[in-house]
Amino acid sequence: MSDTHDVLPVNQPETREVALEVKDLRVHYETPQGDVIAVNGISFEVYQGELIGLVGESGCGKTTTAMAILRLIQAPGRIVGGQTIIGGEIDLLSLNSQELRDVRWKEVALIPQGAMNSLNPVMRVHKQIADAINRHEGKQSKKASEERILKLFNMVGLPSRIYNMYPHELSGGMKQRVCIAMAIALNPTLIIADEPTSALDVIVQRIVAQTLLDIKERLGASMILIGHDIGLMAQLVDRIAVMYAGSIVEIAPVRTALTDPLHPYTQLLIESIPSIKERKPLKITEGLTHDLRNPPPGCVFQLRCPQVTEACREVVPPLQELKPDHQVACHLYDGQAILQPVSLSGSYLES
Amino acid sequence: MTQPLLQVKDATKIFGGGFLQGGSEVVALQNFNLTIPEKPAKIITIAGESGSGKSTLANLMLGFIDLTSGEILFRGTDIGHMNRTQKLDYRRHVQAVFQDPYAVYNPFYPVKHIFDLVINNFKLARNKQEARDLIEDALKVVGLQGEEILHKHPHQLSGGQRQRMMVARAYLLKPDLIVADEPVSMVDASLRAMILDIMLRLRDEHNISFLYITHDLSTAYQVGDEIYLLYQGAIAERGDTVGVIEYPKHPYVQQLIDSIPVPDADQKWNEQISLPDDEELRTHADSGCRFYPRCPSRMDHCLAKQPPLYQINESDHQAACYLYSESHSK
Amino acid sequence: MTTTTAPQAVPKEKTTPFVRRWDTPWLNRKLLFGLLVFLAVLSIEFVGPLFWDEKLAFIGAAPTNTVPIWVEGVPGPTFKAANPDHPLGTESQGRDMLAVLIVATPRSLRVGLIGAGVGMLVGITLGFAAGLLGGWVDSVISTLADVMITIPGLAVLVVIASYIPQVEIMSMALIMALFAWPLPTRLIRSQVLSMRERGYIQMAYLSGASTLDIMFKEIMPNLLPYLAASFTGAVAAVILAATGVETLGLGPTRIPTLGMTINNALSFSAIFRGMWWWWGPPIVMLVIIFISLFLMTIGLDEVANPRLRGLQQ
Question: B84: domain CATH number?
Answer without folding.
Answer: 3.40.50.300
